[in-house]
Write a structure and sequence with these properties.
heterodimer; A: alpha+beta; Beta Polymerase, domain 2; 5-stranded mixed β-sheet; two-stranded antiparallel ribbon; 3 helices; globular; B: alpha+beta; Cytochrome-c3 Hydrogenase, chain B; 2 domains; 3-stranded antiparallel β-sheet; 21 helices; 12 strands; 13% strand; disordered N terminus
Chain lengths: 226, 473
């Protein structure tokens, strides 16, 4: 109980790396007031952090590696004072069993499971993010697992964390990530006969142009973004 | 003939149950079926009874003729005691629930997807529509997550105003939970007085930010507008009103034998069950575990307020009721402390001073309604071209948020409300996800209901207080 999740002082911030560059006509370079200075913005993703991570992160990372020795050396990123553990998907079940059962970790609750679609990351298009909460130690831990587009399968953690059941169904529904081992992986928010997975980046938002007198504004997903 | 048919029906029933199919369905509100006996015998697989407030004896007679042991009853999604549009599929053996499956998604509006196409500042107006009974909490958790990504903190007075509206909203949300929960078991007065008190709070919100619900009051970096001139006086009225009327709920319910008969030992979730299912909020505190994020992982300066975490030790619906009842008093305590802090911080900023982040124009209420302050319009239109450009760019483009991800959790009236945000460095969220406590807790409905009576299902659902706008998002 030495450091609570609210008081963590992060020592090493992860340095973002650019996976792509977003370019466009409309943007604002330094000193530009026309709005037509051209847009050039690197799309950033996170790299791993280096030790010491700060707070309880070192203890959690060390304990996880002791319990699951197959974990790679650099599997931790610290971002905004929060710990993210990048777990290879074949180790996920071992890791969650350790996080729940080990007395020094004791993350009793998986509060949330969700996905993120990064179509520009070949081989890791789908990230599934697990938020773990330890009521015993008053800590939080985020697990992130990736899967490629052609083989979007991540083992289900429902055997360890039964409360992840609906969250995994929602992630399947929204992203099309399969969770082998889930007792009933069916759609939950969309209708049962829906085609497609709406939260994927290539799934259109939909919408109609907005008409004004003498002008027309395109639907939101066709407007400029910066 | 009838023996043969019931045997046949029994076989088929077994098969269909194995496949998880519906064996027979009773619709609540459809017309009484005029079933010819021949039809009943031919339809051996799944007999659907349709009732519309008609003659129930016909259904009972038809069911007796078939000799079915179990019924599948479809409750909702349009049912007054499902807190919105929740569908429950109950498999009944007489009056006993043998299996219950909640079906959700009827109110899915794609808020998370829509947020990816709106600026960070606009997100507040979208997410407030999720759990519409506790909208301030949706805004607060979203803005705290954005501020975590920006690595900024709202000024002190903004935090006091946030705590104030959250605690008033907690009282309003608990009033709806108690009121609708009471109405569902026949205590209609609880609903009428609950909405009467809630009205006072909504009136205050309306005076504060112009809307009774869906406020978009809390914005990244602070709040949209300071208290109006009469704000403190009106707040004092609300506090006095609550002091006068909150004791009525305890007087009506706490020792009411009918109320206790419907609530005690109903929909029990003990501490191991709460841990196994990840249940938080009043249900967890109703098992005696004092877990409250306002104390354990404080945000918005909650550590500087004096309040207690309320617990109860029974783990049933009555315990959850008592926890909510007492939490309203604790919230009122915090509101009174906010009153003092607002007096002390009068005139201080309610939004970060960084012109790149703040919504330009210092919103004020003029004779024609809320809008940009006259001084700001005068400056950008008459004196400073750069300020006009800055205004234009902030409104159309929005501000950039450094790349990264953040998860923020707060204690909403229902439990842990979480917001997970991913930024790629742009002016819109790359991904926004909300962890709604109602969504999570709905998974506990089978654990609370199976083996119990059908009449207790509404008590169980009411005890976790789900709001389907938040559940489905």
């Amino acid at each position: 109980m030495s450091a609570t999740a609210g008081e963590v002082v992060a020592a090493a911030a992860a340095q973002p790396t650019a996976v792509a560059v977003k370019e466009g006509m409309w943007g604002s370079g330094p000193g530009d007031v026309s709005g037509y200075g051209g847009l050039r913005r690197p799309l950033l993703r996170h790299q791993r952090s280096t030790r010491p991570y700060g707070g309880y992160f070192d203890a959690v990372a060390g304990r996880l590696r002791a319990l699951v020795p197959a974990l790679p050396e650099d599997f931790v990123a610290v971002d905004r004072g929060q710990m993210i553990a990048y777990i290879p998907r074949d180790l996920l079940l071992d890791v969650v069993r350790a996080t729940r059962d080990d007395a020094l970790l004791r993350f009793e609750i998986c509060t949330s499971v969700t996905g993120v679609h990064y179509p520009d990351e070949p081989g890791a298009e789908f990230h599934v993010v697990y938020e773990l909460l330890s009521i015993t130690h008053n800590r939080r831990l985020r697990l992130e697992v990736t899967a490629p587009d052609g083989d979007a399968k991540i083992p289900s953690i429902t055997a360890t964390y039964p409360m992840a059941n609906w969250h995994e169904r929602e992630t399947w529904d929204m992203f099309g990530v399969e969770f082998p081992g889930h007792p009933a992986l069916t759609r939950i928010l969309m209708p049962d006969d829906w085609i497609g997975h709406p939260q994927r980046k290539d799934y259109p938002l939909g919408g109609v142009p907005v008409e004004f007198k003498g002008a027309e504004v395109p639907p939101p997903d066709e407007r400029r973004s910066y | 003939m009838s023996e043969v048919t019931s045997e046949l029906a029994g076989e088929v029933v077994d098969e269909t149950l194995d496949e998880g199919l519906i064996e027979a369905e009773v619709l609540d509100e459809a017309e009484a079926a005029d079933l010819a006996p021949a039809d009943v015998l031919d339809e051996a697989v799944a007999q659907e009874y349709v009732a519309n407030g008609g003659d129930w004896d016909d259904i009972v007679a038809a069911q007796q003729a078939r000799g079915d042991e179990t019924f599948v009853v479809n409750m909702g999604p349009q049912h007054p005691s499902t807190h919105g549009v929740l569908r429950l599929e109950l498999e009944m053996d007489g009056e006993t629930v043998t299996s219950i499956r909640p079906g959700i998604g009827f109110l899915h509006t794609g808020i998370e997807k829509s947020m990816e196409f709106k600026t960070w500042a606009q997100g507040s107006a979208l997410c407030t529509r999720m759990d519409y009974v506790a909208p301030m909490f949706n805004e607060a958790v979203y803005c705290l997550a954005v501020e975590k990504l920006l690595e900024i903190e709202a000024p002190e007075r903004a935090n006091v105003l946030r705590v104030l509206v959250m605690e008033l909203n907690r009282i309003a949300s608990h009033l709806v939970a108690l009121g609708t929960g009471g109405m569902e078991i026949g205590a209609l007065t609880l609903m009428t007085i609950g909405f009467r008190e809630r009205e006072m709070i909504l009136d205050f919100f309306e005076a504060l930010c112009g809307t009774r619900m869906n406020h978009a009051y809390i914005r990244p970096g602070g709040v949209s507008i300071d208290l109006p001139e009469s704000g403190l006086a009106q707040l004092r009225t609300v506090i006095e009103w609550m002091h006068k009327h909150l004791p009525e709920y305890a007087g009506f319910c706490n020792e009411n034998p009918i109320f206790k008969g419907r609530m005690q030992n109903i929909s029990v979730l003990d501490l191991p069950a709460c841990m196994a299912l990840g249940v938080t909020g009043p249900r967890l505190r109703g098992c005696g575990y004092p877990w409250d994020l306002r104390k354990d992982q404080p945000y918005c300066g909650y550590e500087s307020y004096d309040f207690d975490v309320i617990t109860w030790d029974t783990g049933d619906a009555y315990g959850a009721f008592r926890v909510r009842l007492q939490e309203m008093w604790e919230s009122l305590k915090i509101v009174e402390q906010c009153y003092d802090k607002l007096e002390q911080t009068n005139g201080q900023p309610v939004m970060v001073e960084d012109p790149r982040l703040m919504w330009p124009g210092h919103l004020t209420v003029g004779p024609d309604g809320q809008g940009n302050s006259f001084a700001h319009v005068k400056e950008v239109m008459g004196q400073s071209m750069e300020a006009l450009i800055q205004h234009f760019k902030t409104v159309t483009e929005g501000f950039h948020v450094p790349a990264g991800q953040a998860y923020q959790a707060i204690e909403s009236p229902k439990g842990e409300l979480g917001c997970y945000l991913v930024s790629d460095g742009g002016t819109r969220p790359y991904r926004a996800h909300f962890r709604d406590p109602g969504f999570h807790h709905m998974q506990a409905v089978p654990a609370m209901c199976e083996g119990g009576m059908m009449s207790d299902v509404v008590v169980a659902v009411g005890s976790i207080d789900p709001v389907l706008g938040g559940v489905d998002r």
